[in-house]
Amino acid sequence: MRKEPGFIAAKTVDEYLHGLPAVQRKMLEQMRKAIKAGAPKAAEVISYNIPTYKHQGPLVHFAAFKNHCSFVTVSKSITSIFEKELSGYDHSGRTIHFSVENPIPDALIKKIVQQRVKENEGLKPMKKVAKAGIRSKE
């Protein structure tokens, strides 16, 4: 994500990717395919000026920076669940940093996205209860 003078926010993921250096663009296009494979029904949007995927709420984001890229999992539990597979990456909270030299494997991206879909789908019934105005008796 760039914010230097003259920065113009992308309106689509295609525009976002088009504005990147070729090596980052190729790697993030591959990540995009893996995300779509993990969540084929997810909507692809730009949110916070970065590519975002939504299915019953936000699933994941990715972003390019000068010296690295980030994969944002939205859920703090992901880095714990996939701790062993993520051991070769700098990560904290919801964000995994990676580079062109050390990209996140497609299979791992797909597994993370599928886990996020399960998490979001698990939250759906609670949202309906909250919307219905049901309150616990305490």
Summarize the structure.
The protein is of the alpha+beta class and 138 residues long. The protein is built from four helices and six strands, in the order H-H-E-E-E-E-H-E-E-H. The chain has helices at residues 13-18, 22-38, 77-81, 106-132; strands at 43-47, 50-54, 58-64, 69-72, 90-92, 95-98.
Would you kindly provide a written description of the structure presented here, covering whatever features stand out?
The protein contains four helices and six strands. The protein is an alpha+beta fold and 138 residues long. A six-stranded antiparallel beta sheet has the order 1-2-3-4-6-5. The radius of gyration is 16 Å and the shape is globular.
The level of helicity is: 25-40%
* Secondary-structure element series: HHEEEEHEEH
Find the count of extended strands (DSSP E, 2+ residues). Answer: 6
Structural class: alpha+beta
The outline comes out as globular
- What is the CA–CA distance across the termini? 46 Å
Number of helices: 4
Largest sheet: 6 strands, antiparallel
Give the overall pLDDT as a whole number: 88
Note poorly predicted spans: 126-130
| Rg from alpha-carbon coordinates | 16 Å
Widest sheet: strand ordering? 1-2-3-4-6-5
Bin the strand percentage: 15-25%
